[in-house]
Amino acid sequence: MTNLKPDEIRKMSREEREQKLKELKSELITLRYQAKMGHIDNPAKIRNIKRTIARILTINREEELGLRRGKQ
Q1: By percentage, how much of the chain surpasses pLDDT 90?
Q2: 16 with 1: CB under 8 angstroms?
Q3: Which CATH architecture group holds 6-64?
């Protein structure tokens, strides 16, 4: 599952997020290589992975700064 919602990411532990981040970055490298070779099935998957990576990094940073985003 590459399209995680922010609420789903926040429910993960820090270690789970770090593991997911590694998996997504590895998958992104693979997809970029496939795109370069012209063998990619779904080009939108690259964009979705990049967005999920950004979400994870943003939530990690929020925790570092002690911020809490969510429904008010």
Answers
A1: 74
A2: no
A3: Orthogonal Bundle (1.10)
Residue that is written with structure tokens 């693979």 in the block: 30
> Does the pLDDT of residue 30 top 50, yes or no?
yes
Q: How far apart are CA 16 and CA 10, in angstroms?
A: 10
CA distance 38 to 47: 16
pTM of the complete model: 0.85
Token pair, residue 52, equals 């999920």
Within 8 A by CB and 6+ apart from 12, the residues are: 20
**Residue 39 pLDDT grade (very low, low, confident, very high; cuts 50, 70, 90):** confident
Distance CA 16, CA 24 (A): 12
In the block, residue with structure tokens 């997809």: 31
Burial of 45 (0-12, 13-18, 19+ CB in 10 A): middle
